[in-house]
Write a structure and sequence with these properties.
about 30% strand, 3 helices, alpha+beta, single chain, 7 strands, two-stranded antiparallel ribbon, five-stranded mixed beta sheet
């Protein structure tokens, strides 16, 4: 995103670009229904999030739009001074893991797919960790 259209304070930056994500996910990107670059409050150690949007009924029994079922990706802002190091870690480790998570979600059984799931990547003291948080 260009600096002119940022919506982030100067001391914050997104560690990934749309191009980074597209390059790593390849054809799995077709299962991504929403890619968001968050601007809100500090996410703490979370740098990347993915959520499986399950096809469950909402609004008093009406079904969810089938185009919304799939994966939502959230890129969390980090301190601008940590952007380069965070980007390198995400490209080397998190994006391949995200690709695998999406592949497994697509191939998962019906029980898994009918339940919302969240997966987060956290960067603490230069160490990247990830886990499901359902």
């Amino acid at each position: 995103m260009s600096a002119r259209n940022r919506r982030l304070p100067r001391h914050r930056a997104w560690p990934l670009t749309t191009t980074d994500i597209n390059e790593c996910l390849g054809t799995s990107m077709t299962r991504v229904t929403d890619l968001r670059f968050l601007t809100g409050h500090d996410s703490g150690t979370i740098v990347l999030g993915a959520e499986w949007i399950a096809p469950h009924p909402v609004n008093y029994g009406r079904g969810m739009d089938p185009d919304m079922v799939g994966v939502r990706i959230d890129v969390h802002p980090v301190d601008a001074t940590e952007r380069a190091a965070t980007r390198a870690a995400l490209r080397a480790q998190a994006l391949p893991q995200l690709h695998e998570w999406i592949t497994q979600a697509i191939a998962a059984d019906e029980t898994w797919q009918l339940t919302p799931h969240q997966h987060y990547w956290r960067l603490t003291d230069g160490r990247l960790t990830h886990r499901d948080e359902t």
